[in-house]
Amino acid sequence: MKYTQPDLPYDINALEPTISERTVDFHYGKHEKAYIDNLNKLIKGTEYEDMELEEIIEQAPEGALLNNASQAWNHIFYFFTLSPDGGGKPTGRLAQAIDRDFGSFDEFKKAFVDAGIGLFGSGWVWLASDSNGKLFIIQGLNAQNPLRDGLQPLLTFDVWEHAYYLDYQNRRADALNKLWDIVDWSIIESRY
Ligand code: MN
Hints:
- The protein has about 190 residues and is mostly helical.
- It has helices spanning about 20-45, 55-60, 65-80, 90-100, 105-120, 165-170, 170-180, 185-190, and strands at about 125-130, 135-140, 150-160.
- α4 packs across α5 and α5 packs antiparallel against α7 (about 170-180).
- It is globular.
């Protein structure tokens, strides 16, 4: 299978002012594209050629193929979690589970951003659930993905510097806190 990069579900400048057009242009147009291009080169002629991306992430050994598969998946997931119509808060079962597992929505947001700030180097901060619906905040180094550990990813913030440096420079905390304005909770609820 040759993986194709999905179009963004919004205009390239639609996430402004939280994320600039320039950042989306580089992050989606160059970084995400490069991971997908690399993945297509690396799977050619291997047992992974006809697998779903999720199967590669679950099965491939540590190395370049796994890293590029994960980074392709993570970026697609990230951009599809964001929306110019996002913000607000979750409702229903997910809102109840957040209150149960983190105390309140505000406490969850603080713990999530703190996990992103505390991640040393590059990576992703994740909200994921287990098969019982219990929620976890996970610090994923580099290309790490909760699918690898049998968990269901619900939300991720990219904490690689390329995700925020053009807009926020070294202010990772500001970049992460602003993302709540464009998180689409209806999509996250549909994943739970
Ligand atoms: Mn990225």
